[in-house]
């Protein structure tokens, strides 16, 4: 149905934009390694990754014995096991590898996203690079903080690429690995079930168990691995008015733009400056309901969004490469904001939805549709710009990135409800990117 797709292409030194990409990667890597080599050491999450890797190497505990205690490391055990390999060689090799993986993930994200738009068109170099320019601040955050969200995005895109090419068990393995590293990609599972991708869903269940329990056991010891179930209790099963998942000061503050956080800030008096004690308390609530009632509102909103998504999804018999791309774009929007914690760098996951909308804006047969698609992208871009520090923090508290995500998802919903009638524009022959030795 989706044809054969060639997406593997290495950067070419004959292509100016590829050179720009390499320069950006070198600069972002220097931001990571420079302080470690010439300064007092790289901060953010990098020292934590090294500590976690060393704990695995030395047989130490990753989590406290009580789920109510403070967790230094808040990720599943498999993450620490993977970090232990480069951590064995020291901080610099670890930090270098993480930066290299982010660079590879960035490159592959662009290739997969442009290849999975369903437009049947090969974009020119500037159009190909446009989603990268639009999301570069999110990429920079990912490099600077050392967060894996860009790598997880590449894994998920690879998983869907495999799924479209009839390799469901391998696709499920990729989804499972992403969810085992950082839990929020598990939101893809209900989609697989709804679309009756039974093999991928089964594969995801099996490999999630493998990654969470089997893989760490030989390294950590089975009993040690079981004893570390306090991670689930402290991270996944904890929720109160003070916050959830161990980072209460971030959960309700303006840095979190998930559906859960924004709904709570709007429906009950929550200090959106609580992540910065130097700032006075500030509130944006329109209502004053209890914590429990706010949770019911979150549940109602989430249920409405989920039902709405299933309602606009075309029947399997009417799925085309174009509608499938739009469906996946909406899914990635929802997975981004459905995560309980959605900080600025989480919105790198809008790369695929934005790429799809850019292709619609460039290639749709209707001039009106093209203009509307560009307008939606412009509105979303302006909303995202409200995160720039020159603007009041209250705009982030209201959920500017969440609103931008809603605009992009809404535009994709419009496209999925108004399929093109011209046969050539939704050809089942999928997009082929240029061969590896041809510059973009």
Commentary on this structure:
With 440 residues, this protein is mostly helical. Helices cover 62% and strands 1% of the residues. It contains 21 helices and 2 strands. It has helices spanning 16-38, 46-58, 77-87, 91-115, 125-134, 136-145, 149-164, 168-181, 188-194, 198-214, 216-220, 222-227, 230-236, 248-251, 259-267, 291-312, 321-338, 351-363, 367-385, 393-397, 400-417, and strands at residues 239-240, 243-244. A two-stranded antiparallel ribbon has the order 1-2. The longest helix is centred in the N-terminal third of the chain and has 25 residues, at 91-115. The radius of gyration is 22 Å and the shape is globular. Mean pLDDT is 89; it is low at 1-5 and 422-440.
Helical residue percent? 55-70%
Biggest beta sheet summary: 2 strands, antiparallel
Oligomer state equals: single chain
Low-confidence stretches: 1-5, 422-440
Mean residue pLDDT: 89
Strand order in the largest sheet = 1-2
Order of helices and strands: HHHHHHHHHHHHHEEHHHHHHHH
Radius of gyration: 22 Å
Gross geometry:
globular
Helix and strand composition category: mainly alpha
Give the distance, in angstroms, between the N- and C-terminal Cα atoms: 27 Å
* Estimated share of beta-strand residues: under 5%
Number of strands: 2
Number of helices: 21
């Amino acid at each position: 149905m989706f044809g054969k797709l060639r997406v593997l292409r290495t950067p070419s030194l004959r292509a100016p934009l590829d050179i720009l990409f390499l320069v950006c990667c070198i600069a972002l890597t220097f931001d990571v390694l420079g302080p470690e080599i010439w300064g007092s050491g790289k901060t953010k999450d990098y020292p934590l990754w090294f500590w976690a890797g060393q704990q695995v190497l030395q047989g130490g505990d990753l989590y406290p014995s009580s789920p109510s205690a403070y967790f230094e490391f808040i990720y599943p055990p498999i993450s620490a096991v993977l970090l232990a390999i480069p951590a064995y060689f020291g901080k610099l090799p670890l930090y270098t590898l993480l930066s290299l993986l982010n660079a590879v993930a960035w490159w592959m994200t662009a290739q997969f996203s442009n290849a999975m738009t369903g437009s049947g068109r090969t974009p020119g170099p500037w159009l190909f690079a446009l989603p990268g320019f639009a999301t570069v601040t999110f990429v920079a955050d990912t490099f600077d903080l050392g967060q894996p969200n860009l790598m997880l995005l590449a894994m998920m895109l690879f998983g869907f690429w495999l799924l479209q090419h009839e390799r469901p068990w391998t696709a499920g393995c990729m989804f499972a690995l992403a969810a085992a590293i950082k839990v929020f990609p598990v939101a893809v599972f209900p989609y697989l079930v709804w679309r009756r991708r039974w093999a991928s869903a089964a594969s995801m269940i099996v490999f999630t168990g493998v990654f969470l329990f089997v893989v760490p056991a030989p390294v950590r010891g089975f009993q040690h691995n079981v004893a570390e179930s306090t991670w689930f209790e402290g991270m996944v099963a904890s929720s109160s008015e003070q916050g959830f998942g161990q980072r209460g000061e971030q959960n309700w503050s303006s840095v979190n733009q998930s559906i859960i956080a924004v709904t709570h800030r709007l429906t009950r008096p929550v200090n959106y400056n609580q992540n910065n004690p130097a700032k006075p308390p500030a509130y944006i609530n329109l209502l004053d309901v209890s914590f429990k009632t706010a949770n019911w509102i979150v549940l109602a909103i989430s249920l409405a969004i989920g039902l709405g998504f299933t309602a606009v999804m075309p029947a399997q018999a009417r799925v085309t490469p174009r509608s499938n791309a739009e469906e996946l774009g909406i899914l990635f929007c929802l997975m981004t904001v459905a995560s309980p914690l959605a900080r600025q760098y989480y919105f790198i996951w809008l790369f695929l939805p934005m790429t799809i909308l850019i292709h619609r804006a460039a290639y749709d047969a209707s001039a009106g549709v093209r203009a509307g698609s560009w307008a939606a992208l412009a509105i979303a871009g302006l909303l995202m710009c409200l995160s720039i520090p020159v603007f009041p923090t209250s705009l982030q508290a209201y959920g500017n990135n969440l609103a931008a995500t809603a605009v992009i998802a809404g535009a994709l919903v419009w496209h999925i409800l108004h399929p093109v009638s011209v046969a050539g524009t939704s050809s089942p022959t999928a997009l082929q990117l240029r061969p590896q030795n041809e510059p973009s």
